[in-house]
Design a protein that fits this description.
It contains 2 helices and 12 strands, in the order βββββββαβββββα. It is mostly beta strands.
Length: about 230
């Protein structure tokens, strides 16, 4: 018989939904928030229950890529950023094709991983007839600006305009940024953690949470060709 020592510590899993950081519950609890999301497969409107937060802050202790292809019928993949603040651990889900990851990819090079990072999510200004997701990265009270920009790409490939579809194709650019994240950023985070080691609670069982993530509002359909790992 195997025993696991009791711990009152808690890992809080966060997603980006309804222009906020969202901690979802399988069942409603007293005082929780309720939002409506659309099932991308059926178009059905589903009510979800949880807590909404404006921001998450703490030392980023690790960045983990995940892929549930062989575990569940519906495949989810992307990265999870682990934040440690005091004794609390927060795990922020950044699906592969999501605005939160897109923003993170462009600022990650400018983050000092030895310092706490704050990420705020909010409803931004209207853009092309829709609401733009606002994401604000801060350290020491100052904004962390993107390292990769159109004006200063630092080797980032340009987006390609598709004359047939009449839209911009960012796939090659996104793949390149993800590759840089894996080859540089993940190593930088690990190096910072070795210099100033921190104790983090176990992440056991977290992958099971993906079974409950049937309806994602910030992810578009993608194929295996989009995935660089």
């Amino acid at each position: 018989m195997a025993l696991t020592k009791y711990s009152d510590s808690k890992v809080i899993y966060l997603q980006v939904k309804a222009y906020s950081l969202w901690q979802e519950f399988k069942k409603p609890v007293a005082g929780c928030d309720e939002i409506e999301v659309k099932n991308p497969k059926t178009g059905e409107i589903i009510k979800k229950h949880g807590y909404r937060f404006d921001s998450v802050s703490g030392h980023v202790t690790k960045l983990v890529k995940y892929d549930t292809e062989r575990k569940y019928p519906t495949r989810y993949f992307g990265f999870k950023a682990h934040f440690l603040d005091g004794g609390e651990v927060y795990v922020l889900d950044m699906p592969y094709q999501s605005q939160i990851l897109r923003r993170f990819l462009k600022v990650a090079h400018n983050v000092d991983w030895s310092l706490p990072l704050s990420i705020s999510v909010f409803k931004g200004k209207k853009k092309d007839g829709g609401e733009e997701l606002g994401v604000w990265f801060q350290q020491r009270g100052a904004t962390v600006k993107p390292y990769y920009t159109k004006e200063q790409p630092h080797g980032m490939p340009e987006a390609v305009y598709d004359d047939q579809l009449q839209n911009w194709d960012f796939k090659a650019q996104h793949r390149w940024l993800v590759a840089m994240l894996q080859s540089e950023t993940m190593a930088d985070i690990e190096a910072a953690a070795r210099v100033a080691p921190v104790v983090e609670q176990s992440d056991q069982g977290s992958e099971a949470d993906f079974q409950a993530r049937d309806f994602i509002v910030d992810v578009q359909p993608i194929t295996d060709d989009d995935v660089p790992f």
